[in-house]
């Protein structure tokens, strides 16, 4: 916060922040007649879309009192944006302005009388946010056109005039004003520290002494100053004779320690290059790590051993180096000049080319560190610090970006020779220099970055021609307003390579690509690993150095269209086409200079369950934050990496939280380190996880999301009395190779491959054992493999609860009939008593205890779904770590265990007994929602963005949180029936019990289970959809039906009225009608919220509503009609089956009763109201 003073002497406390779209009206209110004279006619929204930097000053009431917009080319369209540098040097001599260090002010407005103080504060803030920025320029019309001189501008003497060369057309055209950085932030004088500086430095030191003591122990400032010598140097920077900053340096560095703990390939291992150096270092195959943004070569990290820093030879030197640089302190007022220290550092150590700094994981990035390159740590490194590296050449400011020329090809070849994709980059660079177009005829552009006439970077772009697909399939409008961007302004980034020495110039390289290429946005897709010929995870694509400066874009949920039924009303092919899914990364002019907040805290997630994936997804896509140290520990690595395994996922029921397309559009491997293995121990005091009894993965926060899994059960013997008292028990010996417990897609794949190789062509039996719904999906999958039903034995265990596999007994009977028809033998209420094994350890027969006799079956393959619980090794790790365990891991309402650093969520957890709801666990809720809420609860630890403060209700900490998303189960059951059950969160109950409840609500059923067209919808007593059951021979759009959950029956085209009137005979066809497609749209929920807020704001107690006052007005009051029309107009690409909103207005003016859907009319049941009638 800063205080600004008006010309009348009034003061106001203001806060500077980046401008948001909701500031537009406040900015426009500050316009004055002089504004247009100085800057021309301005469309503020369009200007904000193109601004590289836009700042707003707000007072304590959050009112906009000043605004300024800065772009990287001159205002008033004086010259082409790509040609302003030679234009400036031609017309103005002795200027040092370059695209790297210069921005142009395109707009400045301020509250009356506050312009002078606000202009000074905004300019000061601009220089703070952009350390490389040295000049802010402003072109204004000449005095004879303005009617006053530049010195009369009420901008606080921020600018000074730059005189053009004699005879220049700019003498009469425009006046150039400039504000150099040194007017706001003079360069600091750096010198050797002396004992006389102690008192000045203690003012800085004391304010952070507690944090320094906690991190580095008991060190005194005086010790650092007195220790000066050949290996140790201390420096201060001073202003007007007062020391305002301090840095301690040490040249004795433990390089071997750093090489073990970090990937230092981009910096040649922090060693001087030698011709005999081995550049490629072997990596550990069991540890998959993402390549961070600075990885520009194909090297892999070295194997990492567990290290204890206190007992490593030479570790003291490393600590001293850490302390020497990291303890550098600068007054906040001068922090942006902290880079001045590095000039002095390399002068006192002229034989050193690199400066490194170790920073604790929890320390936020400060201005100095943003110029360094972060080294990628091994996820098993226990050094406990982040390593940042800066090369001497990084101080050079002659960084220049230009279009590539044929003469640059040799320099590009040298630059990329160590890259895994060097041939592709080389070929694309040659295409630009030779033809300017790719083989498809698409225009291609290539740019090079050079320093001192040496090529240090190269980039290749082309026009993005798939922009309509991107707009319809990704939430790109969270970042840009499409209406303000021309088709040719969207660019596709094909390659981006930059020498790690100049990594801190990456955002300026991207900015220049946009400016020189006349683009406003850049897009970069990452395809999944299994897609041949495409860039895949970061180890295989060239853009790793720029991903940090790009934003991952969330995919959008798509409507499943009944294309044949829509005919000419179907959406365009760009919207509805099915193509390879990819993860999309994006940057644009207004984002390119906006740095994200880097979070180096080590967050380790155990378990690739739906909860764990949802947690990681939320962190990855969170705006303004970049998590550098996310690690996933999983038995089979990341899900979705092998489409072949997903094909066999049908063995198990599907929760429909994530599918292969979702995994492809997330590209978790770009942001998450993966350790393949099982958690076997937790050391809470040292804060590390033991993986597979050998690797140690350190953490700052540990998140347990393993869920529950099917376990191999021990045979119980033939005594029925022992069976009932002791069943189930864990099998402790080696599990036979033909015994399968399926828990994920990889398990399903391994089982399918074994069956194909060893079983299908043989004559043995397969036993499916258990009593969950997975036994049905597994039997159907076995039948689909061509296995004869007579070879399949379905052995059902006694029900552990009152709930059957399928809550609807009608469906149970139909499935039973399908099993009998297929020849599958069903054996109810049986418990595994014994099994026999061959010499090779395979199960050859199995015996089961029933209520009447002992059942013995020949067995060639055994699938067990009898016991789903916490894995034993996971349980032992949790128990040995002394985490509270009561059948499951005990947590509170905010996911905390009894360890403040360990969170847990999902089916492996239960709520503490103090909530008095032992029967309710996370198993009863939507796993994706649980993962999101888990991430949201932890984001408050890292996100400093101010949020509206609201006190929680008293006693809310003693209540279990309310989760609202539906639970989903889907799969293919015996008989080829496609099954879907959508239910409200909570404890499930059988359908007959649900019917007996006094507040049962109502239900609508069409079709019959035996005919394969069964559709059941249940409505609560408030007429809201709270469960859906589909049982059909034909596939149906599951994602569409999930959108129906929680909707009122009136919204569903007066569904109950039509049901009672006998107009509905098939709900499947009813929900394929065009009117319903608007409800399936991913933005429909926003429309509902807007309409609800409108109704709430207009409702006055005791007075009739507008509809009641004017019942003849259809289809509702204008306040509700306009949002609906705006919704249909904005999403016209997705909803072309609705008539254009302009046509609707014409129909309304002519007295029409409402909008007719589509050009082909209504295709559903007779008498249905129109879509817009219903929506409004």
TrEMBL record:
Residues 961-1079 form the CFAP61 dimerisation domain. Pfam families: CFAP61_dimer, CFAP61_N. Signal peptide: none annotated. InterPro entries: CFAP61, CFAP61_dimer, CFAP61_N, FAD/NAD-bd_sf. Residues 1163-1176 have a biased composition (Low complexity). GO terms for biological process: sperm flagellum assembly. Residues 16-273 form the Cilia- and flagella-associated protein 61 N-terminal domain. Residues 281-307, 1097-1121, 1153-1176 are annotated as: Disordered. It comes from the Eukaryota. One of its GO terms (cellular component) is axoneme. This is Cilia and flagella associated protein 61.
